[in-house]
Amino acid sequence: MTKKVNIEQIKEDVKGEIKEEQVWLLTYADMMTLLFAFFVLLYSMSSPDPVKASQIQEAMAKKVGIEKPAEEQIKSQSEIDKSLNEIVTELNLSENAKVTRDPRGVAIEIDGEICFGSGSTNLQNELLEILNLATQKIMKNAKDFRLVVIEGHTDSDPIPDELQEYYPSNWELSSARASKVVNYLIDIGVNSGKLQAAGYADRWPADMSWTDIRSGKVTNSTILEHNNTLEKKRKNRRIKIIFTNN
Fold first, then answer.
1. Distance between CA 103 and CA 182 in Å, rounded?
2. Sequence ranges of the domains in the chain
3. Using CA atoms, how far apart are residues 33 and 26, in angstroms rounded to an integer?
4. C-alpha–C-alpha distance, residues 201 and 174, integer Å
5. Per-residue model confidence (pLDDT) at position 3
6. Which residue of 18, 71, 133, 160 is surrounded by the most CB atoms within 10 Å?
7. How far apart are CA 243 and CA 106, in angstroms?
8. What are all long-range contacts of 227-235, with beta carbons under 8 Å and residues at least 24 apart?
9. Can you identify the CATH homologous superfamily of domain 75-244?
């Protein structure tokens, strides 16, 4: 006797097996939805670095053959280093200014002798020329939001009695000089929101590194050691401009 095959029943059984095997897709879809919502929430709470975002955009545009105008491109730290060295060479200031680096970024250190007169906060012509060129070559880009720190540094000599009414200590004098540089940069069109003034008085000798300062190696005896000759004092009196990484 031939057994009759129920085609419709077979179809229903197969359909049921397929549905049972694909139940995991529902859980998977829910998980992907939750992950997507989670990353959207993270992004909405974050503060994206505009500099890095701009650099990514430029790299992507360059990859597909779209070049931005040179004035819109944000300089890398190496390009800033090169521009600062060009400024030092152009102004023939190799004996009075040098380009350095620390964990914060690239910096130019300028001897105090070509920045200010003794006990004064009036900017001298050599410093003005450096600031003008640095603004033109580096700081004028409206899309570059990286912080630029202006530091004032002094030697350990006490403030003369006749000036103590204005600057009770080297802290006030170094801060006033850094602030004067910031004010000038703002006057010539640099975005004030990315400028910061800092005065270090005699607490950061020229021959000590960022790591030395942060690790607490500066003591009163260290200060004396780094100011025991006229040459060391001259090196310590300086303005430092740091173009930070972010």
1. 22
2. 75-244
3. 11
4. 5
5. 53
6. 133
7. 5
8. 227/155, 227/156, 227/157, 227/202, 232/155, 232/205, 232/206, 232/207, 233/155, 233/156, 233/157, 234/111, 234/112, 234/113, 234/155, 235/111, 235/205, 235/206, 235/207
9. OmpA-like domain (3.30.1330.60)
Q: What are the structure tokens assigned to 135, written together?
A: 């603004």
Q: Residue 66 has what pLDDT?
A: 62
- State the pLDDT confidence band at 38, using cuts at 50, 70 and 90: confident
pLDDT at residue 129, rounded to an integer: 96
Residue 246, burial from CB neighbour count under 10 angstroms (0-12, 13-18, 19+): exposed
pLDDT class of 222 with cuts at 50, 70, 90: very high
pTM for this structure?
A: 0.72
pLDDT tens by residue, 162-184: 999 999 999 999 999 999 999 99
